[in-house]
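[Automated response] Your request has been received and processed.

Submitted sequence:
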Amino acid sequence: MKRGDVKHFTVRVFLLGLSMCCASLFQSGCKSPAEYRVEADKVAAGIITAKQQQALGRTEDFTIERPSDIFRRRLLTDQNLPYSGPASFGADALEKIEHWPEKDYPKAQPSLDPIVLLEKATVVKLSLIQALQIGARNSFQYQSHKEDVFLTALDLDLERNEFRNIFTGEVRNLISTDLTGDRTVSGAETGAKLDLSRKFQNGAEFTTNLAMDLASLLTANGASSFGIAGDASIEIPLLRGSGRHIAREPLTQAERNVIYAIWEFERFKRTFAVDIAAEYLSVLQQLDRVRNAEDNYRSLMASARWSRRLANAGRRPEIEVDQAVQRELGARDGWISTVESYKRSLDAFNNLLSLPTDAQIELDRAELGNLTAPALKIMDEITRDQTQPTDSPIAPADAVVELVAPSREDAGPLEMDEDVAIRLALDSRLDLRTAIGGVYDAQRAVVIAADGLRAELTVLGSAGAGDRRTVGTATSDDADLRIDKGAYSALLTLDLPFERTEERNLYRASYIALERAVRDVQILEDSIKLEIRNKLRDMLEARESLKIQAQSVIVAEKRVKSSQLFLEAGRAEIRDLLEAQDSLLAAQNGLTSAAVSYRVAELELQRDLGLLEVDAKGLWREMSPEEINNVKN
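Generated structure:
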């Protein structure tokens, strides 16, 4: 075979290999936007699952994809509520704009969630459990916190990518014509280049590439030449920037940031669940106030009518009629105000769940009945004791008055010793773990800042072999990749630390940041102690208030009945009955308020202890008395 034939054969082989290389690169490196999105979801899910196990000792389902038929969307359609446009229904309802990368995404995704399958009704009645689940699926806040965890996981993947093998490829084709000389020179260049770079966790960086060229003249004798070249370099820091702890610091921080994000999300879930319960019970409490206000209004209206009849008969003075009418008008004003307050609180509850503000929602009154059941039991016991004869002597009026402090005999299971509760909170609070982790982060920052003060000593090695080809060298012989004919070099550079003003200031600032991180832990620690102590006091106060208000309701009811009888017998004034009715209304509202306060304090204490577990569906698991006894022992 002649030399020219060999050359042409080599060119054809090269072009074939180049085509195969391009096809392979295209197939492996060019993905659709949907494939990249799915890949990102898969990577983030794997990171979050691993970090959940590390941060919480358990894993649970985690996804930022929400079904399109969430409860908010259903209410807009089922109750025919006004809306501003397609965005009111979600991203999948938007019209795809020009050049949209994924035709079928976001897309409608149905759900088999039982919450979504609630019966269609003009007014939807929700239990507390359903409200918790709806909050986890509909709340804008809840979704934003989940997305924060997801984005932190992607940040970690990006930092991990710094220490992976990074391949880049390039294929180019150039056709050129040169008319500046005596002869017109036209030619074509085809080339391919493959690069590999890798950063190691000791700070070293390695890069290498292999390039192939084919330069052909389209004029003159049509000469062509094949070029091939390769080079590699490695850079190793020996002082400043060297060491695993320095080089991988961004990765270390990214790993810890995912842990912090998961802890923060868990803390948010617990706080959010308690907020939903507190608002739910607050709305029911307001509804109970409406009922009490209605009863009070009816009672005062009847009293005003009754006093008018007596005045017309000449049995009561006109001034008592005016007093009764004034109280009736005040009761009407209070009733209207209470109804509107209830509507406002219901709207606020819708907003908390991220449901349409004007959605027709009704809460389950039975939830409030469960809370007031202990109070009704207390009232029954008091009534039973009052109907039974007693031999207990009545203390004389001039006897020394002894104040009896609240007893712990009837305390609830969560009313534990302060010291036990505080120690439990300090061991379990996730936000405290995050703050303590911040101290370690600040300590590492001091180490990194100190490294910046050192001299920079770097070893750089490079190697290259072969030659590239262009149209200008198309007449040269084909190049060979011969290692024994390569060029090699080694360089040692020393950057002396004469100027380190910026680094000096950063180093000093790192100690200040450390002190602040330590103070943050101390402040949070004191805040936790204060929260726990106050919540235990709230529970004690609410428990005692519950007993007191239960007795007050009994006394107020007796007072209303006796005032009515005395008034009919002419032994009391209308003012006595009106005041008794006001006292009954206040006692009834106080009883409900005490029951709600105690329950909310129980939930808030478990939240502040860090022991109120909330799953991915938004449902909680409360502490059991057995767990509390184990802690005490």
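Summary generated for your ticket: Residues 166-199+204-240+456-496 form one domain. Residues 6-12 have pLDDT under 50 and may be disordered.
If you did not submit this request, please reply to this message.
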